[in-house]
Amino acid sequence: MKEPNPLQIVLFFLIIAPGVYLLSRWLGTPGQYAFLAGGVIAVILAVLVAGSFKVADQWEKAVVLRLGRYTGLRGPGPFFILPFIERVAYWIDLRIITTSFKAEKTLTRDTVPVDVEAVLFWKVLDPEKAALEVEDYRSAISWASQTALREVIGKSFLSDMLEGREKLDAVLQKIIDLRTEQWGIHVSSVEIRDVIIPPELQDAMSMQAQAERERQARVILGDSERQIAEKFEEAARTYQDNPTALHLRAMNMLFEGLKIKENATLVIVPASVLETMNLGAMTGLVSLARTPDAGAEKRAERSPKETD
């Protein structure tokens, strides 16, 4: 229902003020009877003229019926209709309109009850069809959207609804647009706002997701161990043919162990470890290599005295 136009009130008073004076003069009856008769006639004329004056906004179209038959569309802007003969049956809004709708406790294809909320964006392309082909096009669009949503939910799995909403939006838009096309209405888009599932199923899905993440973590850890083992195998091949590199690596490991222990002053290494890394033999060889040099120095010191 369109709100009353303020210009109708202004037009009413603009007609009634001079109408009373002019009609009373035209009737020619002296006294208060002429004024009263002129006032009554002026009020009736002002009501008729003001009632026949209409203004349609820029985004509106007025559907005019003459004696119950469609005569055409009026607007936007001001226009007049014939009093008692013509009337404005509908004011059609041509802007894009949003309609929210939902489906409650609807079973999916895998028998999961869900509540789905969606928003429909639509506009009237043919005001004549919207006014004449359906009783209430707004209610018809709402019901058509709900039934289409229930059909799509019944044909979809829950996982598809949670992950592929864009696909469901496109399917809904196509179904609803096909139904409303005969009413002169075009559906621009449909957007699913929310999919609500039962709390028990939410807990189960949360546990499933947690288990899946744990499985992936274990797989990644196992793959990391495999890669580490492969690298160790390559390093072992390198140390197998190069004992010097193995000795340097062993010494580096001991140094790193001492470095990590901040408060430690003594590190005890088993003799078997040293034998495995040949550190003990190496130390002995170095000591033996240094012993002859010391004896030679002593003999060099004694030789001058003996000569004397």
Give an account of the 3D structure:
The chain has 10 helices and 8 strands. It has 308 residues and is of the alpha+beta class. The strands form 3 sheets. A 3-stranded antiparallel sheet has the order 3-2-5. Helix 1 runs antiparallel to helix 2 and helix 4 packs across helix 6. The chain is elongated.
Number of strands: 8
Query: What would you call the structural class?
Result: alpha+beta
Helix content: 55-70%
The poorly predicted ranges are 283-296, 304-308
Which strand order does the major sheet show? 3-2-5
Main beta sheet: 3 strands, antiparallel
Shape, please?
elongated
Strand content: 15-25%
Mean pLDDT: 77
Number of helices: 10
The SSE order reads HHEEEEEEEHHHHEHHHH
Short description:
By secondary structure, the chain is α+β, with helices and mostly antiparallel strands.
